[in-house]
Design a protein that fits this description.
This protein is mainly α and about 110 residues long. It has four helices and no strands. The protein is globular.
């Protein structure tokens, strides 16, 4: 379960990079485009960092990914279409379930 959770976390982080593609739709200079790309890479870097920690401590992975998914749903419920929650928070909640299964299989 730990390998499945870690692999899913890495795939989720890479999927977040899709959102960085919108920086190329703007008419702006090269330096501004690079800055925008770096800003868009921050969530991916955070998720990868959390996946690395969660791989070492699956219980932490369960807690942190469940909290992230629930906070995303709660804070954006009125502002976003339900599909946004499925696409963004859904994988976070799946990750939390995979990490709790990994934790229980280790114990």
């Amino acid at each position: 379960w730990l390998t499945a959770a870690t692999g899913t976390g890495v795939c989720y982080a890479l999927a977040l990079l899709i959102f960085a593609g919108d920086v190329f739709n703007k008419n702006q200079g090269t330096s501004q485009t690079i800055l925008d790309l770096l800003i868009h890479f921050i969530p991916t870097a955070i998720v990868l960092f959390l996946v690395i920690i969660a791989h070492q401590r699956p219980l932490f992975g369960f807690i942190i990914f469940a909290i992230n998914g629930l906070v995303y749903i709660i804070t954006g419920w009125a502002n976003l279409h339900w599909t946004a929650h499925v696409v963004i928070a859904g994988p976070l909640l799946v990750l939390s379930m995979l990490y709790i299964m990994a934790y229980k299989s280790i114990k």
